């Protein structure tokens, strides 16, 4: 007569299965965490891109304003407002300091 003992040989198999199942659960948890971090990274990246575009637009507006101030074809005309000096007085440098001015 043969007695069936179901728990006699299954202890090793149960240990292996429990390790595999716990690894599967841990791997699933890590994948969810990784997915959440990737979504947050993409969200922050898009927010940074939009902020960069705003800053670039402001920079372009400032450049336009600066270039319009220094534009030679601007509406402000200097002709007629400048006076030619007949006897200009120039700045003269003392000759003893001419050697020091080379450095």
What labels would you give this structure?
mainly alpha; about 0% strand; about 100 residues
Q: Could you explain the architecture of this structure?
A:
The longest helix is centred in the middle third of the chain and has 60 residues, at 10-69. It is built from one helix and no strands. The mean pLDDT is 83. It starts with 9 loop residues before the first helix and ends in a 34-residue tail after the last helix. By secondary structure, it is mainly α.
Secondary structure: helix percent: 55-70%
Q: Cα distance, first to last residue?
A: 114 Å
Using the CA coordinates, give the radius of gyration: 41 Å
Counted by DSSP, the helix tally is: 1
Largest sheet: none
Strand content: under 5%
Count of extended strands: 0
- What are the segments in which pLDDT stays under 50 over at least 5 consecutive residues? none
Structural shape: rod-shaped
- Structural class, please? mainly alpha
pLDDT averaged residue by residue: 83
Order of helices and strands: H
Summarize the structure.
This protein has 103 residues and is mainly α.
List the helices and strands and how they pair.
Elements lengths: L9 H60 L34
């Amino acid at each position: 007569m043969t007695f069936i003992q179901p728990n006699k040989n299954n202890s090793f198999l149960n240990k292996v299965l429990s390790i595999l199942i716990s690894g599967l659960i841990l791997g699933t948890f890590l994948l969810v965490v990784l997915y959440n971090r990737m979504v947050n990274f993409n969200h922050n990246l898009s927010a940074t891109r939009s902020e960069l575009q705003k800053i670039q637009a402001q920079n372009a507006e400032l450049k336009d304003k600066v270039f319009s101030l220094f534009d030679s074809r601007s509406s402000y005309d200097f002709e007629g407002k400048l006076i030619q000096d007949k006897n200009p007085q120039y700045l003269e440098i003392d000759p003893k300091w001419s050697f020091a001015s080379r450095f």
